[in-house]
C-alpha cells in the first residue's frame, strides 16, 4: 500500500510505531521496521546521547530497514542534552525523527541539513498548522482517545482527522485509538496517510516490557483508562490502578491548589518500575482507550501482516461490495 507517508519514510506499510517511554527500545523498533512499518526508538528513554547512539547502533544491527527516533522537547528548567541527542541521531544515519512536546523549530534547520524528515506530534489542528508553517514534513494527529498526553481540547479522531484533512497540505498520520485494519482504513478514509500505534505495539511478543504490562493491557477494557493531571493542564491518559485512583483523589481534594509536588509519588520515576520490573501499581503510566480492542499478544510481524491483509479485504470486499450491491 503506497501513501505519501510510505513514500516519505521509505517503508512498505503506512504503519508507524509511536515513541513510548521505556518501550521504544531497539528490539521493538527493529521488529516494526522488519515487518514493513516504521519503528521508533524513544530518545529520552536513553539517559545520555552516548546511550542513544548505542541504541541506534543496536537497532542498525537488527534491521536494514528505515527506523526513526522520537525526541520529546520538554518544558523543564533542567533540559536534557538536546544538542547531544540530535547529534547522535545525525551520526547514526537516522532519516526520520518524531518530535513531540515543545515547538521543534530550533532544531529543524540542522535536521533538514542532514536530510532528516520530521514528523511532529500534534493534538489540535492549530498546532498541526503551526508545525506545517515552520517546515515539518508531516504531522501525527493525536486524538483524545490516545494514551499519554491528548492535549486540553478533547477532540476525538472522528472530528480531528477530517478537520486536519481540510486544513493541512503536508501529510499526516492518525494517532490515538489505532489497533487494527478498521483503524487504518477509517484513518485513510478521513484523509490520513497512515496510522501511528502505541498501546497496540506494547502488547506484542517483541515489546521489551514486563509480561505483567502486556497482561494488564489484555485484561483492560475501553473503560479502564483515566485522565490525570488535568488541573495542571498536563493531562495524561493512563491505565487505572491503585496509584492512579490515589492521584485522582488528591486532585478532587486539593482542586486548583494542587501542585506537582503533591502527586510526584504517583508520577515521578514510574516507568522503569512498571515497564521493566512489572510493578503495576507503581504509579500512573500511559495507556490508550484502544486497550479495549486488544485481545491477543502476537508477534509484530503477525500483527502488521494481519492489519494489512484485513485492510485489503475491507477495501476490496466490504467497501467495494457496498457500491456493487
Q: Which short descriptors sum up this protein?
A:
two-stranded antiparallel ribbon, 10 strands, alpha/beta, single chain, 325 residues, 14 helices, globular, eight-stranded parallel sheet
Shape: globular
Q: What share of the residues does DSSP label as strand, in percent? A: 5-15%
Q: What average pLDDT do the residues reach?
A: 97
- The H/E string reads HEHEHEHEHEHEHEHEHHEEHHHH
Would you kindly provide a written description of the structure presented here, covering whatever features stand out?
- This protein has 325 residues and is of the alpha/beta class.
- The chain is 43% helix and 14% strand.
- The protein has helices at residues 4-9, 26-34, 49-62, 82-91, 108-113, 125-134, 157-167, 181-189, 199-202, 211-219, 242-254, 260-267, 270-276, 300-324; strands spanning 15-17, 39-42, 67-73, 96-101, 117-122, 138-142, 172-175, 195-197, 225-228, 236-239.
- The strands form two sheets. Strands 1-8-7-6-5-4-3-2 form an eight-stranded parallel β-sheet. The chain has a two-stranded antiparallel sheet with strand order 9-10.
- Strand 6 (138-142), helix 7 and strand 7 (172-175) form a beta-alpha-beta unit.
- Helix 8 (181-189) crosses helix 14.
- The longest helix is centred in the last third of the chain and has 25 residues, at 300-324.
- The chain is globular and about 60 Å long.
- The model has no long low-confidence stretch (mean pLDDT 97).
Could you give a short description of this structure?
This protein has 325 residues and is α/β, with parallel strands linked by helices. The chain is built from 14 helices and 10 strands. The radius of gyration is 19 Å and the shape is globular.
